[in-house]
Amino acid sequence: MRKCYLLIILLGATLANPVGPLNLAAAEPEPVGLRKVKDLVIYQQDRFYAAFPSIVTRPSGELIVAFRRAPEHAFVKDGRGSHADTKSHLVLVRSKDNAETWTADPELIYAHPWGGSQDPCMVQLRDGSIVCSSYAWYLQSTKGFVDPPETIRTGAYLFMGGFLMRSADGGHLWDGPIIPPPVPGIKTKTVFNELCPAYNRGAMCEGKDGRLYWAVAAKGTTAPFRTENHLMVSQDGGRNWEYRCLIARDPDVTFNETSLIETPSGHLVAFLRTAQFDDHTAIARSTDGGKSFLPWKDAGFQGHPHYALKLPDNRVLLIYGYRHKPYGIRARILDPECRNSATAPEIVLRDDGGTSDLGYPWASIMADGRILVVYYFNKDDGLRHIAGTILEIEPSK
Q1: What letter would DSSP give residue 73?
Q2: Can you tell me the distance from the alpha carbon of 186 to that of 197, in angstroms, rounded to the nearest whole number?
Q3: Which of 44, 117, 158, 329 has its CA 20 to 30 A from that of 88?
Q4: What percentage of the chain reaches a pLDDT higher than 90?
Q5: Within the chain, how many helices (H) and strands (E) appear?
Q6: What pTM did the predictor assign?
């Protein structure tokens, strides 16, 4: 079957397209730039609500996509699937042919014995091991239940905090759960009336120094108690964690789902999801190896949450969900130090989503040099499924 390539010009794109994003889904062919090869479905099953994926490329070239799978209650005409479900668990599928085919039956990473697990966020370390962070919810089943003080609640679900899993054999066997310590000074309790272990949805970063850096969320301790982000660090591949510093806090803006990347100069750059800020992305930067962060800044565009992928030429592909009409997945190519977020042309990877319940992208460079962006998606408010987009990126001149 003939491949149809969609191209855009990156150099001078701002002048060529002063208003609105560059749309790969409808763009005319141009000489060089970002090339969209195709969209694909990675996992879709009418009995399950599949969402919140992450991806790694193994040294062998095998692709692993992890995601959260829960019952799709519409299958038995008992409501619809949702983001909180006591039967949600962490699973993965594999591809050994650069995303052309995928295993049909997901492998279990972890099913929490007390409730639903969320958002498996994988990072592959230099030694080949995989660390996967998650968090969990407990379903309250009695009307007279008394919440522990400062417990996080969503509907009938009470928070159990974060945990991590580790695999040394490419995701076939997993050790855990590893329970990280709480952020110092927080008052948030779990359903077990214990201080809440650190948690977040977002990409960790293994630094040049071998440390693993993790941006976690915590509920503020002073009014109006907005969620803020902090940095945790592990020196042994995610087995043990210590608190490092505050990333971002603001009396008017909420920060939560955050991904990290290390630049060639050694800066740690955090891309933060916000609330009470018109869905604008925020950026925070550490210039001292994660000892402290400079004041956060408005990145200059809407979208959440984010994943930052370092390209072979050190540029950064920043991808994010777009939960405004037209719903879909968008991206920007940033300079190696991630300083041009507001001026980098916005690129539309998908604009055919059915509702705002989509996104949460992740990306990896495949063995053939192309990039696979994964995310969860819906068409016409239909079945939530794991989808992907294959891209080719030409080097900067």
Answers
A1: G
A2: 10
A3: 329
A4: 87
A5: 1, 26
A6: 0.93
